């Protein structure tokens, strides 16, 4: 895998992870909700007008374009496992930004992901 290809894949992964974090930040502003007929419009409008939600959706769009560029250069069996890096980024960022737990068991799992991604990237 060339440095350019690896960079494209990682950029796609990081944009995807950023999108998830922005969507979480946006939903934190709204709070827990259920889509019912009574609140579909009010909650939908709040979500549609939320800057973090809009930014997250924008990151998704850009991540798809970047991901397609990466997929054009490597087999999907190599590219797809790279998405696992997003779990690492999101676990650490959610711990830092939202105070989510990062227990030992989660850290061990992240270690396995790192090893797995390394092995796939070298294949």
End-to-end span in angstroms?
Answer: 9 Å
Largest sheet: none
What would the average pLDDT be, to the nearest integer?
A: 91
Percentage of helical residues? over 70%
Work out the count of structural domains: 1
Number of discrete helical segments = 6
How many whole angstroms does the radius of gyration measure? 17 Å
Instruction: Please state the structural category.
Output: mainly alpha
Global morphology: globular
SSE sequence, one letter per element? HHHHHH
Q: What is the topology?
A:
Elements: H1 3-30, H2 40-48, H3 51-71, H4 76-79, H5 85-98, H6 104-122
Helix pairs in contact: 1-3, 1-5, 5-6
3D structure, described in words:
The chain is mainly α. It has one domain (3-122). It is 77% helix and 0% strand. It has six helices and no strands. It has helices at 3-30, 40-48, 51-71, 76-79, 85-98, 104-122. Helix 1 packs antiparallel against helix 3 (51-71) and helix 1 (3-30) packs parallel to helix 5 (85-98). It starts with a helix and ends with a helix.
Summarize the model shown.
The chain has six helices and no strands. The protein has helices at residues 3-30, 40-48, 51-71, 76-79, 85-98, 104-122.
């Amino acid at each position: 895998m060339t440095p350019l290809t690896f960079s494209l894949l990682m950029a796609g992964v990081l944009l995807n992870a950023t999108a998830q974090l922005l969507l979480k930040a946006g939903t934190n502003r709204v709070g827990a909700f259920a889509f019912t007929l009574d609140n579909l419009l009010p909650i939908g409008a709040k979500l549609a007008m939320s800057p973090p939600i809009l930014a997250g959706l924008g990151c998704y769009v850009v991540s798809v374009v970047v991901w397609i560029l990466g997929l054009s250069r490597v087999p999907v069996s190599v590219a797809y496992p790279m998405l696992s890096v997003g779990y690492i980024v999101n676990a650490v960022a959610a711990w830092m930004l939202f105070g989510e737990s990062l227990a030992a068991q989660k850290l061990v799992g992240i270690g396995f992901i790192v090893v797995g991604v390394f092995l796939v990237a070298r294949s």
